[in-house]
Amino acid sequence: MKPLTQEDRAAALPALGETGWAAVPDRDAIRKVWKFKSFVEAWGFMSRVALLAEKLNHHPEWRNVYNVVDVTLTTHDCDGLSDLDLDLARRMDKLAGEAMVQRDHGQPITCLCQERKGKAGA
């Protein structure tokens, strides 16, 4: 597997950026955070992605807390972004459906239970 060329990056990354994918500081990787309506929706998304990732033999780095799924894509075989990452990112976007996207990765990521707790304490 080969890393993306500068031409490939220029052609593909802006469109992915418009959907919420962003560069990961200090890594050749992209990241996206989805917020689903429930834990079941988040887990269903992860299950569908897991089956797809297994078929592609390309697995995301991800974290799930309640309704939030936080994904980082990079290809470890080439130590950076590859066509596999672009393909998986696009497919994940389709599988996520109408989930909300947290575009500002510098802000704290809160799940529904934390949001409910905050409202109860207000």
Q: How does this structure look, described?
A:
With 122 residues, the chain is α+β, with helices and mostly antiparallel strands. The chain has a single domain (6-121), classed as Transcriptional coactivator/pterin dehydratase (Gyrase A, domain 2, 2-Layer Sandwich), CATH 3.30.1360. 45% of the residues lie in helices and 18% in strands. It is built from four helices and five strands. It has helices at residues 6-18, 39-56, 83-96, 112-121, and strands at residues 22-23, 30-35, 61-65, 68-73, 100-102. Strands 1, 2, 3, 4 and 5 form a five-stranded antiparallel beta sheet that branches. Helix 2 packs antiparallel against helix 3 (83-96). It is globular, with a radius of gyration of 15 Å.
